[in-house]
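Figure 6 in text form: structure in, sequence out.
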């Protein structure tokens, strides 16, 4: 049984978050500590801990992360100038919340990726 995180509580609307979008597969809300003018998280509704735990059964939800990222980027008015999508995995990847999510960052030039 996968352990639940704070993101499951946000998905079920048990704790507050600025939710921008929700459907049967994913939920999107603003990051509580934004690193860019637009910093939005898109999470699978079911708690997949990390990218390492992905199976073929998850493909619909994972595809939806991208569809929703593109939709929200347009809504935020950052699509044309561009943005960055990030999925962190485990400690070396900088993952803090072990419930698979995509970061959508934009609204300013983000510079090169750090190594
Ligand atoms: P990670 O490092 O796991 O890829 O990213 C986790 C992100 O979740 C961080 O950017 C952090 O600011 C955000 N975060 C952690 N707890 C909460 C919360 O309770 N609400 C919201 N909206 N964001 C959170």
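Output sequence:
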């Amino acid at each position: 049984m996968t352990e639940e995180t704070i993101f499951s509580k946000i998905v079920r609307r048990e704790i507050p978050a600025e939710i921008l979008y929700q459907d049967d597969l994913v939920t999107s809300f603003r990051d509580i500590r934004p690193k860019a003018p637009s910093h939005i998280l898109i999470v699978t509704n079911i708690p997949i801990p990390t990218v390492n735990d992905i199976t073929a059964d998850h493909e619909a939800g994972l595809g939806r992360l991208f569809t929703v990222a593109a939709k929200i980027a347009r809504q935020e008015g950052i699509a044309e100038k561009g943005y960055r999508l990030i999925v962190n995995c485990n400690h070396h990847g900088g993952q803090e919340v072990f419930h698979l999510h995509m970061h959508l960052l934009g609204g300013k030039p983000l510079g090169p990726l750090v190594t």
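Caption detail: The chain has one domain: 6-106.
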